[in-house]
Amino acid sequence: METFAALAHGMAVAVQPMNLLYALIGVFLGTAVGVLPGIGPALTVALLLPVTYKLDPGGSLIMFAGIYYGGMYGGSTTAILINTPGESASMATALEGNKMAKAGRGGPALATSAIGSFVAGTIATIGLAFLAPWLVDFAVRFGPEDYFALMCVAFVTVSATFGDSPIRGLTSLFIGLTLGLIGIDKLTGQARLAFGTPELLDGVEVTTLAVGLFAVGEALYVASRRHHAEEKIEPVRGSLWMTKQDWMRSWKPWLRGTMFGFPIGALPAGGAEIPTFLSYSTEKRLSKHPEEFGKGAIEGVAGPEAANNASAAGTLVPLLTLGLPTSATAAMMLAGFQQYGLNPGPLLFAERPDLVWGLIASLFIANVMLLVLNLPLVGLWVKLLAIPQPWLYAGILVFATMGTIAAKPSVVELSMLAAFGVLGFLMRRFDLPIAPVVVGLILGPIAESQLRRALAISLGDPIVLLQSPMSATLLGIALIALVAPFVLKGLGRFRASED
Amino acid sequence: MTDSESSDLPQRPASRRIDAAGLVIAAALAVLAAVLVWDANRLSSTSMYGMGPEAMPVVVAVGLGILAIANLIDTLRGNLPPRESADPKPVLLILGGLALLIAVIGLGGGFILATSALFVTTSAAFGRRALLTDFIIALVMTTLIYLAFDRLLTLSLPAGPLERLL
């Protein structure tokens, strides 16, 4: 009952005209930028962070959430129409959706992905609203050692457990942790890794890192392999509307995708790849038309797209209740909170219920706006795809550098942006995942301060980490999550060699 | 993503050459670990209970050291994913554009000139050859951005000779 009251209160905040406007701007920008190939929701939030720090916190957080959801919708349009999944989570969508578009069924593919995203987003946001207060009650009792253990779980799951290679994932994470060490140590005031450069004393800006890795890195990477293949946009031919049969074949995959996406996103496991992949293989198994898979089966778009959106809402659960980002976009949202001096977690629910519940309620509104905005305006979004590639990437880089120029117009900061761009290029080239770097930079300093607080309370005795049952359990989970991929990979190899 | 594609890369003993890039990655991680330890040694440990500021860098350095060895083993086993060829020219062109942007900002040339330079080099890197047209497009676009963000949103963007004319 408590949840209903809080949600009703949040709805009253969200429907204020200014907040509705922020939500509308957010979903519009999110879709527009999400449609552009090479820009995902994380980069969109990163680009807009420096521009919004003068705005009202509640309004801009609502806008960021709109961008997050809008970016997911826009990304699926790109995946269907030009078969370049901007992120691995849209891979399954691209697989079947692009085949549908080639067969002249691009309209229904876009429709099932938009309606599926709406269904999944709405159910998952309800899940968020009911799960959050419960988790908050639980998290209030957390001591610093429990938070530290929780962050260890997030570090391991984000980098090692679910990626292609645990070694490369952990390498990325430790690059991020190293960058997080730069700057003045908050407890003793001593400078670490600043090498006498005053600009480094404040530490590495999250936005500079994210924009460098995502925007500059992506532009360099795409430019370096331009000679390989030209992208081809599939025109949307025929009817936009789904037939009765399309509806019949879509509604179950939507619901099943949501069931995969939300819990996996809500666990601090990170990434939407697992639920979309699970959803894709489940639909392939359950479909009455398995022969269509690989040639454009509508179930293969409906399910993964729902799973993708549900997991995006799921990642907001640990973010809002525990302050724990488990995806690059969630990490950027956390940076958005931090720029207003707000720290997501149980305290924020107690101190700023208007802000938190206004944000949750606005997610429902954003979802409705996206459904209304997406289907009729699909022609407009497709036009965005027709921007010639040279101007597109040149424009992206102008906006990317503008954020840094506006926040800190110094030669050192801009050089760091360029250096992070080179890092992002090299990481893409050598298959190192990007998200763990951003998560490491943001969570590393928080984990360190929680650990030092725990050890200061226990007078330096590390046993405190194991005395709290919560922290001991979480550290155990982190250890299992770290070891499992190595053991399971060994098993996989064993099986493969027996075949 | 079918089962056969998902897990490991196909084992091809014939193409199992050692990838020099993997050795460079391992070496870079080792160097980074050494820098962390060197920097941590400079810090004065306080006599407080608990962890000093030097503890965390050492922990991260140990992790980096282990990962350097793990990456080395991974490389020697030929586990690095194969790469397609990359064209260095456009990369250098974009980096040149960024260098130009930094130089113009550093010398007080202002936002419009700096970002226009980046726009033209990036667009050239992606294959455009109409440099003058692109430069005019860039000037118009960045001037509009400057007016929108500097004047309307009161974001302070650096002003140079062109901005003072507006």
Write up what this structure looks like:
The complex is a heterodimer of chains A (499) and B (166). With 499 residues, chain A is mainly alpha-helical. In chain A, 75% of the residues lie in helices and 1% in strands. Chain A contains 21 helices and 2 strands. The longest helix of chain A is centred in the N-terminal third of the chain and has 34 residues, at 106-139. Mean pLDDT of chain A is 85; it is low at 491-499. Chain B is an all-alpha fold and 166 residues long. Helices cover 66% and strands 0% of the residues of chain B. Classes of the chains: A mainly alpha (499), B mainly alpha (166). At the A-B interface, helix 5, helix 8, helix 9, helix 11 and helix 17 of A face helix 2, helix 3, helix 4, helix 5 and helix 6 of B.
Explain the layout of strands and helices.
The complex is a heterodimer of chains A (499) and B (166).
Chain A: H1 2-14, H2 17-35, H3 41-52, H4 57-82, H5 91-102, H6 106-139, H7 144-161, H8 166-181, E1 183-184, E2 191-192, H9 206-224, H10 244-266, H11 273-286, H12 299-322, H13 328-338, H14 346-351, H15 353-374, H16 378-385, H17 389-407, H18 411-429, H19 435-457, H20 464-467, H21 469-498
Antiparallel strand pairs in A: 1-2
Chain B: H1 3-6, H2 20-42, H3 55-76, H4 88-106, H5 111-125, H6 131-152, H7 161-165
Helix pairs in contact in B: 2-3, 4-5, 5-6
